[in-house]
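Ticket #4471: structure output looks truncated?

Reporter: J.K.
Steps to reproduce: submitted the chain below (387 residues) through the standard prediction queue, then opened the result file.
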Amino acid sequence: MAAVVKLKYGDNERSIRLVNDQLHIPTIKDMFGLSSVDVDGVAEPADDRGFTFATYLSGSTLHISGSPAQAAVLSGSSTGAKLDEILGLLKAKKVQEYTFGQSKTGRDMAVAAALTALGLTGLVPGTLPKRWARGWNQKRYSVFAEWPAGGQIDENTYAAQLLNHFVKALIVFEVPFGIGGFDFKDVRNYNNRLSFACMTGASTVMFNGGTDAAVIPRGPIPWQGQTRILFDWKRRSELQSVESVATQAQLELLGALFNSRHPTLVVLTDGVNFVILQPWGCTIRYWQTFSDVVDRISADDAVRLVAHHLLHISSTNAGFNHLDSVPEGSDLSMELAPLLAAKKELGEAEGLAVQLQVDPDLPANERLEAVSNTILAWRQPNLSYFS
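Returned output as attached by the reporter:
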């Protein structure tokens, strides 16, 4: 079973997963809105990733105290540890830079290196659930038939139509939208909100990008911190095989691992065909609907898989934390494994105000602009979650 302890802060009680029997102090700060944390009256020291040196017994109840955090705001964002190092790299230009959607020499190797850094072996064919929910086998998905036969395609028009099309399709499979359910958001204007950077061997690589739409729990939350499904809309000419979109799909999944507190399914679709990626243990599982491949699934099953992920794997809690208690061996725990590996291996962060104090090299008039631009473009793995 997963090692879990209860935390009590006044009348507030939460459960948290232990990692190697250690507590993660930045997560506790975030849970209770604290700038400092005492555990059972002791200010426990932590390593550079925020994990306590002390260890704790699963099932224990720990009493938390500390100072309330002061809110730090900059362009609507908050960031974390080692921002000074990132800014130094930015000034020195000692970084390889890639985008999610554009091919560039070395990008595939950089993605492979990032996967290796997280202990992921890459793409493997996925298997469908043994059983669908009652009645789902009789339900069908109606393909998107609005693409014009030729001529100019208005992306804004068809993005909105595809989003509405999939809201209706998922409602058929009983996915609730609105109060008490999910939101299906157009996020094309937030084009760098899944960006991240990581160390791969002796080099640093930065990946910039976002996606088109996201399904998140209903609530006042930054979408990229609580993603359940990412949708990337593709024209039919762009979606011909898994290979044609594999690198971009893996980058969007990696971006979700670094930025979201909840595991994410990535869906690339033109409304007719689908490529779906799922984090799973030490692998990334994929499904495809192309008629000329052996391991294809139907478009009906593709939409059933999305609905199954939302209704039977995902947490509906808009405040879900990846260190919360999750049943051992559950599908959600399997999806959490790569996310936990990313958070542990690459670290998590503290607050923006502290980082501004440790970045004295930039002139004051350049600091806000540089930090804001860096937050939007860099998404370094040990940055904290931000809106």
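Triage note (M.O.): checked the attachment and the full token line is present. The radius of gyration is 21 Å.
Status: closed, working as intended.
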